[in-house]
Structure formats: structure tokens, C-alpha cells
């Protein structure tokens, strides 16, 4: 059972559409950060928010709900005052962890290379526009 090859990319199958939806979820920048942080263990909402630079409260809420809906994250509410809510990876979410950690490690290792490539590109584009 190999990978499905689409003969007509303009008419994707239902399976290909589902794959795209899953990739959209696990590949968006906020989901990558959340999964990576939860790889270190259970976290509270405020811990996640502090750990992800630039994410708004609303976007973190939306991201966590989507990851929970897709079975990648569990949400546990404790009946205390003030309410306490913990988030953790599910076993399915943990299957993504190695891939996510590899992606984060690659990003950290190559930020200088990407930054230099952007500078070269911008200089070339700006020079051509002048």
C-alpha cells in the first residue's frame, strides 16, 4: 500500500482532502509550538502562553481546541477555584513529537542560513527594482 498518487490534482479524492486537513492542523506554526511544548509534559494554559512568543490568548485557545478535536491533545479541567485546566499530548499526539522536535531542531540549526538567504534575496530584488 503505497502513497496515493493523484492523477488530476484539480479533483482530489476525499482521502487527499483529509490528508490536507491533517497537514493544515499539524503544520501550522502555533500547533507546532504547542505540540513541542507539551512534549515536555503537561502544561497549564498560562504556561503555554508564556512559552509561545507572539501567540494571543484567542489564538492559543483556537489552536488547543483544534488539537483536542483532532485527538492530539487532552484537556483536563479540575473543579477548583480558580479553575485549573491542564493540557497534555495524547498517545496519538506523542507519535508526532519526534517529527516536530526534528523540525524545531532543524529550524534552530539553520536560522542563520535562512536569514542570510533572505538578505541575499532582498538585496537582489531591491536591486532589480531600482
* Overall tally of domains: 1
- SSE succession: HHEHHEEH
Strand numbers in spatial order across the main sheet: 1-3-2
Q: What name does CATH use for the topology?
A: Arc Repressor Mutant, subunit A
Q: What is the tally of helical segments?
A: 5
Oligomer: single chain
CATH architecture: Orthogonal Bundle
In round numbers, the mean pLDDT is 90
Tell how many strands the DSSP assignment holds. Answer: 3
Tell me the distance between the termini: 53 Å
Instruction: Tell me, briefly, the overall form.
Output: globular
Radius of gyration: 19 Å
Largest sheet: 3 strands, antiparallel
What percent strand? 5-15%
Structural class comes to: mainly alpha
Q: What's the CATH first level?
A: Mainly Alpha
Task: Provide the helix percentage.
Answer: 55-70%
Low-confidence stretches at least 5 residues in length (pLDDT < 50)?
none
Task: Outline the structure in words.
The mean pLDDT is 90. 64% of the residues lie in helices and 11% in strands. It is globular, with a radius of gyration of 19 Å. The termini are far apart. Strands 1-3-2 form a three-stranded antiparallel β-sheet. It contains five helices and three strands. With 130 residues, the protein is mainly alpha-helical. It has a single domain (14-129), classed as Arc Repressor Mutant, subunit A (Orthogonal Bundle), CATH 1.10.10.
